[in-house]
Design a protein that fits this description.
The protein is an alpha/beta fold. The protein has one domain: Pyruvate-ferredoxin oxidoreductase, PFOR, domain III (Pyruvate-ferredoxin Oxidoreductase, domain 3). The chain is 38% helix and 24% strand. It contains 8 helices and 6 strands. The longest helix has 14 residues, at 16-29. The radius of gyration is 16 Å and the shape is globular.
């Protein structure tokens, strides 16, 4: 199998690292060679965070170059737009419609761009946009946006739901498992 590339992008503190652990666990359990690379930047201060997940028969490098991502999974709209040039032609964006103001917007030096979903579609991207924050709250915690996104991403994989659940059980602490399984189901079925 040729190598597939997934970028998980967001803002520090949103749970992108747990999402990448979940994907890594899932794909390793299915027999793939998997490489995960995390770029933190100013993640602890709400800055941009990107994680690369690459899988296939044999993966030699953990890095994804521009135009190579099969999927971009984004925790908020501006981050999806920021990394758009990494999406390959025919690739898929799965994004939460949440908007988190970056520092230039907070300080008044800039305005949050409007119509980003439409602009990405106009640029030729396939965009699956979902109000993941509302679904996470419905599951029981606003912090479950990451698992709602993983549930939505599962639509694009030919893997049984049991494999996703086993991966969740392997990476999520037992006391949060029921909430995360609900968040996954809400994302998957939205």
């Amino acid at each position: 199998m040729e190598t597939k590339n997934i970028m998980i992008v967001g803002v520090g503190g949103q749970g992108s690292l747990l999402a990448s652990k979940l994907l890594g666990q899932l794909l390793i359990s299915r027999g793939y060679d998997v490489k995960v690379s995390e770029v933190h930047g100013m993640s602890q201060r709400g800055g941009s965070v990107v994680t690369y997940v690459r899988y296939g028969d044999r993966v030699s490098s953990p890095v994804i170059d521009k135009g190579e991502a099969d999927f971009i999974v984004s925790f908020e709209e501006l981050e999806a737009a920021r990394w758009l040039e990494y999406l390959r032609p025919g690739g898929q964006i799965v994004t939460s419609t949440q908007q988190i103001d970056p520092m230039p917007v907070i300080t008044g030096a800039a305005v949050y761009p409007e119509g980003l979903i439409e602009k990405m579609r106009a640029a030729g991207a396939r965009v699956d946009a979902l109000d993941c924050l509302s679904l996470a709250r419905e599951a029981g915690s606003a912090k479950a946006v990451n698992i709602v996104l993983m549930g939505r991403l599962s639509h694009y994989f030919d893997l049984p739901e049991e494999a996703w659940m086993a991966a969740l059980e392997a990476v999520v602490p037992a006391k949060f498992l029921a909430l995360n399984k609900k968040a996954f189901a809400l994302g998957k079925n939205a």
